[in-house]
C-alpha cells in the first residue's frame, strides 16, 4: 500500500488488496515448493510419499513414528532414537536443501510439517506435500540427533552417578565398623603412649590394654575400608558395562564426531573402538590413545599388564560426553552440539555489535579503570569496617557476619492489602481470560501456522491455553467445557499453539501490564527477580526429569521463571531438577524481556556464579544475588591483599588481569553475540563450565566475574537498602510460585508429559495464565484504590508498594468452563467491584 501511494495509484478496495495478497502468497508458496522438489530425486520422492502410508509393522504411518520420539533415558529408547535417525538418513535428503528457497519459506514448510497430521498432508498437492515432508524430515533429523546425544549424556552421567551413590551407600553401611575400628585404633595409641611414658614394652602393653588377637582380627576390615576409600568411580561405573554395550556401538556408528586441538586424541580413541566393534574378538593395542584429563584413569585402564576393554571404553565415552557438552567435540547437523565458535558472531560481523556494548571495549582503559575502582572501594570498605561504620556488619574470627534485616512490611500495609483484595470482583477464570484478551489483544498472537489467520473461535484458543496452564489436558478440558469440543481443541492446539505464539502473546500482556498506572506503585519497572520452582513428574526421568535429593526421592523438573518488579511474569523455561540455575539467569532477560527497560536482576544464592557476574556486567545488567554463603566467599584483589589493613583474611587468590586481557577480544565478541540474539546465554555458560579442563575463555570470564562479584559484595555490605530490595524482589517470586501451585493443580500438579517439548508447552501455558491473572488483578486493584479514595478513605500511598496482584481467592480456577457465558458488561467496560458489606457506593 505504501508503494502504491508513493507511485500515486488510487488504492483499490480492501477486499481487492486482500485477495491480491492471498494470491501472491499462494504463488510464492507454489514456487518455493517447486524449487525444493526440483532438488529431490525420483526415488527420494517415492520414499517421501511412503511416509504417509500406514505401516502394519509400526501400527502407524512412518511419519507419525518418526515424530514419536522417546524422552526418558534408557538403552531401549536410545536405540529407538538411533533407529529413527538412520531411517531418516536413508531417505537421502541433504540438509542443504534448505538453501533451495528463501529461509522464511523453508521455515514455513518446517512449521507446517511439524504439526500437520498425515491425513491432512495426504490431501496437499504433490509439490506442496513433498516440499513440506522434505522440510519436516530435515528438521526431524536435527531434533533426533540432538535428542540422541542428550540421551547419551544422561545415560553416561547416570552410570557415574549411580556408581558414586553406591560407593556412598557402602560407606554408610560400614559406619558402625569404622566406629569400632577407630576406638580400637585409639586404644592402641593410648597403649603406645603409656609405653613411651613408662618405658615399658609397647607390644606387651598393646596386648594387655587392647588384645593382640583383636588387632589381628581387625586387619581384614581395615584393608577392606582402605580399598573402599581408594575405589575410583570409573571402576564402579564399569560394573554396568553390559548396560553401556547395549547402545555404545550403535551410537558410535551413527555419528561422525569432529574436534580440533586436544580433541583429536579422543577421535583416535573413538576410531579404535569402532574398529574393535567391527571385528569380533579384536583386542585393543597395548598402547591405545589416552585422551583423559584424569591421569589416574590411564593407570586404572591397565589391568594385569593389559588394557581393560570395559574400563577403556567407559572412560572414552565419559570423556566424549564431557567434550560434547563443552563444544571441544562437535557433530555437524545438530543445534545443541556445534563447535563452540559456531555459536558466536563472525569476527568481522561482531565489530559493530561490540561497539554497542555498554562498557568501554578498549581492554587497557577498561582494566585500568576497574583496577582503580576496586582499589578505592576496598580501601574505603576496610576503613569503614575498622571504625565500625557498617550497620549490622562485623568481622568475627576472620569471617564476615551480617545481621539479618527485619521484615519491612508494616501492619498497615497488610490491612490495606486485605481491604483492597476484598473489593476485587469475584470472577471465573474463563471470564478473566476473555477480559484480558479484549484489553491486551494477546489472542492476535495465536495465528494459524499455515495461513497466519486468527482463530474464528477465541474460546477454543483460551481453552487450549487453559488446558496447558492448569495441566488438565485437551480431552478433560473438552469434557469440562461448554461450547468447545474435543475436535476443536485438538485442532487449535495443533495449528494455533506454538512456542513463538506463546512468547508473542506473553509479551503483549506484559507490555500492557507495565502500562497500568497502578503498577508504578511497585517500582520503576527496571528490576526483576528470577528463581526455580520444582514440580514432580508422573514418569520416571521423562523429558528433563531427574531426582534431586533436595526435593525428595521422586523425579521432577524445575521451571525457571523471571518476574519484573511490577509483578509481570515475563519468562519461564523448563530445566532439569539437578541442573545448576546460574546458566539460566540471563536467558529471561535476553530472550523474554527485550521490550522491558530492565537494568537489575535479583536471584537466590543458587543463581550466583562468577561467570554470571561477569556476563551480566558485559551486557549492562546489575546482578544482585542474595548472598547466604557470604562467609565462605573470598574477595578478589588485583594488588596484594596486604595493602588493605584489617581485611587481609578476606582475600583469596589475586585476580589474573593478564588472563582477562589475553582473552578480551573473545569476551566482548561472546557478549555481543548474546546481545544480538545469536545464542542463548545458558548455552554459552553451560559450554564454558561443562568440561573439567577449563579453557582460557572460561578462566577469563571467571576472573572478570570475580572483579564484579567483589564490587557487588562491597555494595551488599555497605548498603542495607540493597539487601532489603533484593529480599523484597525474591519475596515477589515466592508469591508467583504460590500462584503457580494454585493454578497447576490437575493430575496432582505433576508433569506427566514425556518430552521436553511438551513440558515446555505446559510451562508456557502456566506462565501465560499467571501473567493474565497478575494483569487483571493490577487493573482492578487500581479501581479498588480509586473507590476507597472516592469514599473518603485516606490511603497512605507508600503502603501501596506492599500490595500484591498475585492473589487468587476471588478467582474461580476450577469447575465447569462455561465459555459461552464468559462475558461481562460493566459501566464503562469494567466489572462491578465486590461489595463485602452490602454498602458499596461505587460499583463500577
From TrEMBL:
Q: Which residues form the Tn3 transposase DDE domain?
A: 431-817
Which GO MF terms are attached to this record? Answer: DNA binding; transposase activity
Keywords associated with the record: DNA recombination, DNA-binding, Transposition
Name one matching Pfam family.
DDE_Tnp_Tn3
This protein's record includes keyword DNA-binding: yes
Task: Show the InterPro entries listed in the entry.
Answer: Tn3-like_transpos, Tn3_Tnp_DDE_dom
The keyword Nucleus is annotated on this UniProt entry: no
Q: Name one GO biological process term.
A: DNA transposition
Q: Which family does it belong to?
A: Belongs to the transposase 7 family.
Known NCBIfam families for this protein? transpos_Tn3
Q: What is this protein called?
A: Tn3 transposase DDE domain-containing protein
Q: What is the organism of origin for this protein?
A: Novosphingobium lindaniclasticum LE124
Amino acid at each position: 500500500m505504501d508503494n502504491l501511494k508513493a507511485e500515486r495509484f488510487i488504492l483499490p478496495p480492501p477486499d481487492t488488496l486482500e485477495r491480491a495478497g492471498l494470491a501472491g502468497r499462494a504463488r510464492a508458496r507454489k514456487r518455493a515448493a517447486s524449487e525444493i522438489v526440483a532438488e529431490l530425486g525420483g526415488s527420494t520422492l517415492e520414499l517421501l510419499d511412503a511416509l504417509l502410508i500406514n505401516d502394519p509393522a509400526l501400527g502407524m504411518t512412518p511419519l507419525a513414528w518418526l515424530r514419536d520420539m522417546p524422552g526418558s533415558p534408557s538403552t531401549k529408547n536410545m536405540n529407538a532414537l538411533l533407529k529413527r535417525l538412520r531411517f531418516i538418513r536413508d531417505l537421502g535428503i541433504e540438509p542443504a536443501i534448505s538453501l533451495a528457497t528463501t529461509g522464511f519459506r523453508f521455515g514455513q514448510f518446517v512449521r507446517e510439517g511439524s504439526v500437520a497430521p498425515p491425513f491432512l498432508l495426504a490431501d496437499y498437492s504433490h509439490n506442496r506435500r513433498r516440499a513440506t515432508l522434505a522440510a519436516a524430515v530435515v528438521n526431524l533429523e536435527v531434533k533426533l540427533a540432538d535428542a540422541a546425544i542428550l540421551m547419551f549424556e544422561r545415560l553416561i552421567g547416570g552410570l557415574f552417578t549411580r556408581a558414586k551413590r553406591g560407593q556412598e551407600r557402602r560407606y554408610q553401611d560400614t559406619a558402625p565398623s569404622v566406629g569400632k575400628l577407630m576406638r580400637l585404633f585409639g586404644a592402641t595409641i593410648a597403649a603406645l603412649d603409656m609405653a613411651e611414658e613408662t618405658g615399658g614394652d609397647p607390644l606387651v602393653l598393646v596386648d594387655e590394654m587392647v588384645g593382640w588377637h583383636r588387632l589381628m582380627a581387625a586387619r581384614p576390615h581395615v584393608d577392606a575400608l582402605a580399598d573402599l576409600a581408594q575405589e575410583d568411580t570409573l571402576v564402579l561405573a564399569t560394573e554396568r558395562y553390559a548396560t553401556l554395550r547395549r547402545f555404545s556401538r550403535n551410537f558410535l556408528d551413527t555419528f561422525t564426531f569432529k574436534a580440533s586441538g586436544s580433541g583429536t586424541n579422543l577421535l583416535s580413541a573413538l576410531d579404535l573402538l569402532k574398529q574393535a566393534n567391527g571385528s569380533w574378538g579384536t583386542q585393543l593395542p597395548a598402547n591405545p590413545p589416552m585422551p583423559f584429563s584424569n591421569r589416574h584413569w590411564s593407570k586404572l585402564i591397565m589391568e594385569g599388564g593389559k588394557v581393560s576393554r570395559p574400563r577403556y571404553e567407559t572412560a572414552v565415552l565419559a570423556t566424549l560426553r564431557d567434550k560434547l557438552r563443552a563444544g571441544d567435540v562437535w557433530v555437524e547437523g545438530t543445534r545443541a552440539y556445534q563447535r563452540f565458535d559456531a555459536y558466536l558472531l563472525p569476527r568481522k560481523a561482531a565489530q559493530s555489535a561490540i561497539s554497542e556494548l555498554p562498557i568501554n571495549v578498549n581492554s587497557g582503559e577498561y582494566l585500568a579503570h576497574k583496577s582503580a575502582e576496586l582499589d578505592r572501594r576496598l580501601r574505603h570498605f576496610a576503613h569503614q569496617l575498622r571504625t565500625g561504620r557498617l550497620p549490622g556488619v562485623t568481622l568475627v574470627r576472620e569471617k564476615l557476619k551480617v545481621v539479618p534485616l527485619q521484615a519491612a512490611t508494616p501492619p498497615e500495609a497488610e490491612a490495606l492489602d486485605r481491604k483492597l483484595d476484598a473489593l476485587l470482583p469475584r470472577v471465573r477464570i474463563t471470564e478473566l481470560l476473555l477480559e484480558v484478551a479484549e484489553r491486551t489483544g494477546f489472542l492476535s498472537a495465536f495465528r494459524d501456522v499455515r495461513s497466519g489467520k486468527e482463530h474464528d473461535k477465541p474460546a477454543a484458543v483460551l481453552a487450549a491455553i487453559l488446558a496447558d496452564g492448569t495441566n488438565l489436558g485437551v480431552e478433560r478440558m473438552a469434557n469440562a467445557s461448554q461450547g468447545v469440543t474435543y475436535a476443536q481443541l485438538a485442532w487449535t492446539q495443533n495449528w494455533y499453539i506454538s512456542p513463538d505464539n506463546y512468547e508473542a502473546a506473553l509479551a503483549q500482556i506484559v507490555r500492557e501490564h507495565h502500562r497500568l498506572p497502578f503498577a508504578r506503585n511497585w517500582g520503576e519497572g527496571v528490576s526483576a527477580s528470577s528463581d526455580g520452582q520444582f514440580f514432580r513428574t508422573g514418569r520416571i526421568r521423562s523429558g528433563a526429569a531427574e531426582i534431586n535429593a533436595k526435593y525428595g526421592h521422586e523425579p521432577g523438573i524445575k521451571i525457571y521463571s523471571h518476574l519484573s518488579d511490577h509483578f509481570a511474569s515475563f519468562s519461564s523455561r523448563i530445566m532439569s531438577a539437578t541442573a545448576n540455575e546460574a546458566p539460566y539467569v540471563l536467558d529471561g532477560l535476553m530472550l523474554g524481556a527485550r521490550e522491558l527497560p530492565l537494568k537489575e536482576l535479583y536471584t537466590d544464592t543458587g543463581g550466583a556464579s562468577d561467570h554470571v557476574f561477569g556476563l551480566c556486567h558485559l551486557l549492562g545488567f546489575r546482578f544482585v544475588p542474595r548472598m547466604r554463603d557470604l562467609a565462605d566467599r573470598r574477595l578478589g584483589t588485583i594488588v596484594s591483599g596486604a595493602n588493605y589493613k584489617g581485611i587481609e583474611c578476606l582475600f583469596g587468590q589475586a585476580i589474573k588481569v593478564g588472563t582477562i586481557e589475553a582473552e578480551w577480544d573473545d569476551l566482548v565478541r561472546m557478549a555481543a553475540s548474546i546481545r544480538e540474539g545469536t545464542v542463548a546465554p545458558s548455552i554459552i555458560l553451560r559450554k564454558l563450565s561443562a568440561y573439567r579442563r577449563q579453557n582460557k575463555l572460561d578462566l577469563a570470564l571467571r576472573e572478570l566475574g570475580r572483579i564484579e562479584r567483589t564490587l557487588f559484595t562491597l555494595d551488599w555490605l555497605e548498603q542495607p537498602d540493597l539487601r532489603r530490595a533484593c529480599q523484597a524482589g525474591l519475596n515477589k517470586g515466592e508469591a508467583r510460585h504460590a500462584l503457580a501451585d494454585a493454578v497447576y493443580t490437575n493430575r496432582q500438579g505433576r508433569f506427566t508429559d514425556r518430552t521436553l517439548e511438551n513440558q515446555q508447552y505446559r510451562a508456557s501455558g502456566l506462565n501465560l495464565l499467571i501473567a493474565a491473572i497478575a494483569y487483571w488483578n493490577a487493573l482492578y486493584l487500581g479501581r479498588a484504590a480509586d473507590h476507597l479514595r472516592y469514599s473518603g478513605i485516606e490511603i497512605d500511598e507508600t503502603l501501596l508498594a506492599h500490595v500484591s496482584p498475585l492473589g487468587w481467592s476471588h478467582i474461580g480456577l476450577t469447575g465447569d468452563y462455561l465459555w459461552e457465558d464468559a462475558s461481562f458488561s460493566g459501566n464503562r467496560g469494567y466489572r462491578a467491584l465486590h461489595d463485602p458489606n452490602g454498602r458499596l457506593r461505587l460499583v463500577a
